[in-house]
Specification:
Length: 677
């Protein structure tokens, strides 16, 4: 059996190779990281997806808005996809679904009511509602996906309402997939963790447990969500002016408590942030949040109320540049400005990678005079993920034969595996895996199979345009070393017809403009002397067929190497070539510049011109009779970046002393991703 790339795919069809068929579980995201949780269950010709989330970009991902897993494997095998299971409605579990639906069809998606309501809105916005069918489920509902997967939804407790753990019955045994969870014995909505159902499966026998590892380093139990109520109440009651609270919009229980406290303390609520408005509207519509309509006041009107009667609830707890609180901290919000009497509460903890953005936002708010309440010691935030004792309880209830820690960074997976060993799971019965690794399960074994392609896809702010590795590298170069724009005129018979123009933006260098111009001339001449025969070929017509894009790349690469060697900088170099007709007089270059001593092979014909040596040993090109027969014709517009008209060649200039050493026999190397087309 092969995939669409022609590579062999390990078979899990019944009776393959005469051995017990294996269940394959393949995480495409969520391992060695926080976010973009995406997992594939595969048996025979059936593929079932579990969640499809997104992650936030790191500081070096300039212009990137969303990070998604690479779904090449799913696109190659989309005909085998039977459906998707959603555990809950957090963005790191459902945020990628609308984008994936643009690339492949998912026949049906099963999930809880709140998550499916949020997903429906995302799909309508993306225009992909016709690519799947949404089915809502409740506690202990069982759905059949394909021929080989039967999934029961087991109520759990998390920071998001309507969250589930999955019991997946397969031909090789029962697999429990926890999703995000903690054991909250006093849940805000009264929906308790269905531990009895977990224990039932533990009694029947669980083949393998895939368990959330986010808080595996933290001892003890995770406190109940209700634990933040007293501290939030205290800060709101004691505030003399406005109260501004930021939290995750999807933390329905936290938001519900804040609305309850606003009502209790006689404060009207103004909402800021698109996601906050959308989530609260969906949660109220479905009955997950109860608050009277008169509690809410439009943000334009709430400014007319006394500060003592105002509470603003908004996004921005992660320091996102465009979120409401971040804009307020920079003084850029059109309707809200910070006052010295404000109390600003961060009821969230930074996601790994967002810490710097969060503390910078806090600093700006403090400099504006506000009182800012943040940090673990304030008791205003608790995690939605179980700590070590929660994880032990999960292991005790399910009593799995095999164990795989998921959803966490590497150190978290290691800690979770040690916890599992302390609960009696042998080290040989567990695997530490990464995105793309394949877990193969049979009734009597667990092993790693041949990995599939995994990685990331980067989306810009539109969530439509893919930022590939080349674009990202160029953006990083622009941010770190700036850009050099280079314009040169080259005739179709391989002659530099005018001095190059060099323009620097954001480049810090000790070299003056004349030296850079000399270096640029050297690189252009070297390419024309040594690469022209490969880039320009006579096709029997009046003009040679010139690979102008190749000429540009060769010049860019050569100048990039020189700048890296001479100045230890690596700016982005953009070369524009203006083609000139054959027979255009050659620009003789800077007569006083030190000659380029890099050798070229003797007697080699290069693009219809023979290379000989002058008295100094430097290459000197002489036209041969064949060159005169080349007619004048413009180059193909599709092969060249056309620049504006250029002034006539300049005369010789005053002396410039440039001393440099070049490696002998410059060789052509494969271009890096930064400059590849």
């Amino acid at each position: 059996m092969t995939n669409q790339n022609g590579h062999a795919r390990p078979s899990s069809s019944p009776g393959a190779n005469g051995k017990t068929p294996a269940l394959r579980v393949i995480p495409l995201g969520g391992l060695h990281e926080i976010g973009k949780n995406t997992c594939v269950f595969e048996y025979g010709d059936d593929i079932m997806l579990v969640d499809a989330g997104l992650a936030f970009p790191s500081d070096g991902m300039h212009g990137v808005n969303v990070v998604l897993p690479d779904t090449s494997y799913l696109r190659e095998n989309q005909k085998r996809i039977r459906g998707m299971i959603v555990t809950h409605g957090h963005e790191d579990h459902i945020g990628g679904i609308p984008h994936h639906l643009k690339n492949f069809t998912i026949p049906v998606i099963y999930g809880p009511r709140l998550a499916m309501s949020l997903l429906q809105g995302k799909m309508e916005e993306a225009g992909v509602t016709d690519r799947t069918v949404i089915q809502t489920v409740g506690p202990r509902d069982v759905v059949q996906v394909g021929k080989h997967f039967k999934v029961e939804f087991i109520r759990n407790t998390h920071s998001m309402a309507d969250s589930f753990t999955l019991a997946v019955t397969t031909p090789v045994g029962v697999v429990v997939f926890t999703g995000d969870f903690k054991f909250d014995h006093t849940p805000v909505d009264g929906e308790h963790f269905d531990m009895a159902r977990l224990a039932h499966y533990g009694e029947q026998g669980v083949l393998c447990l895939f368990s959330d590892s986010t808080n595996a380093e933290v001892p003890g139990f995770t406190p109940s969500e209700r634990a933040v109520f007293p501290k939030l109440d205290q800060h709101i009651a004691q505030a003399e002016g406005r109260v501004i609270i930021t939290t995750f919009a999807s933390s329905i229980h936290r938001v519900a408590m804040i609305l309850e406290l606003a009502l209790k303390n006689g404060r009207k609520v103004g909402l800021l942030g698109r996601s906050m408005l959308n989530v609260i509207a969906k949660a109220r519509e479905l009955g997950y949040m109860r608050a009277p309509d008169e509690l809410f006041v439009p943000i334009k009107q709430i400014r007319d109320l006394p500060d003592r009667e105002t509470l603003l609830l908004m996004t921005g707890s992660q320091g996102e540049p465009l979120a409401a609180l971040s804009r307020i901290s920079r003084g850029e919000h059109p309707q809200v400005q910070v006052k010295s009497s404000d109390t600003i509460i961060f009821s969230a903890s930074p996601i790994p990678g967002n810490t710097i953005s969060v503390v910078n936002t806090i600093d700006r708010l403090m400099m504006l005079g506000a009182k800012v309440v943040y940090g673990k010691g304030e008791g205003i935030h608790v995690s939605g993920h179980g700590c070590q004792e929660d994880q032990k309880l999960m292991l005790a209830l399910t009593r799995p034969k095999y164990f795989v820690p998921v959803h966490g960074e590497h150190r978290m997976l290691v800690c979770h595996s040690k916890t599992a060993q302390s609960m009696g799971v042998p080290a040989d019965n567990m695997l530490l895996i990464d995105n793309g690794d394949v877990v193969e399960l049979t009734p009597d074994s667990i092993r790693k199979g041949e990995a599939v392609k995994a990685g990331i896809e980067l989306l810009d702010a539109s969530r439509n345009g893919i930022v590939d590795a080349r674009v990202l590298k160029e953006r990083q170069q622009l941010a770190e070393d700036g850009v050099i724009n280079l314009l040169t005129v080259i005739s179709t018979d391989g002659v530099m017809a005018a001095p190059p123009r060099v323009n620097l933006r954001g480049v810090v260098t000790t070299a003056d403009a004349r030296k850079l111009s000399v270096w640029t001339e050297r690189e252009i001449n070297w390419v024309l002397e040594n690469r022209w025969s490969q880039l320009a070929r006579n096709s029997g017509g009046n003009a040679p067929d010139v690979d102008w894009v190749g000429v540009q790349r060769e010049i860019e690469l050569g100048l990039q190497r020189r700048l890296r060697r001479e100045l230890q900088v690596e700016p982005l170099i953009i070369c524009l070539v203006q083609p000139a007709p054959a027979g255009t007089p050659a620009y003789k270059g800077r007569a006083d510049a030190e000659p380029d001593t890099r050798p070229a092979p003797r007697g080699r014909r290069d693009g219809g011109r023979e290379i000989i040596r002058n008295g100094n040993g430097a290459p000197q090109r002489q036209p041969v009779a064949a060159a005169a027969a080349v007619a004048s014709a413009p180059a193909s517009a599709a092969a060249v970046a056309v620049a504006p008209p250029v002034a006539a060649p300049a005369a010789a200039v005053r002396q410039v002393s440039v001393k440099e050493e070049e490696p002998v026999g410059r060789t052509r190397r494969r271009r890096s991703a930064a400059v590849a087309g």
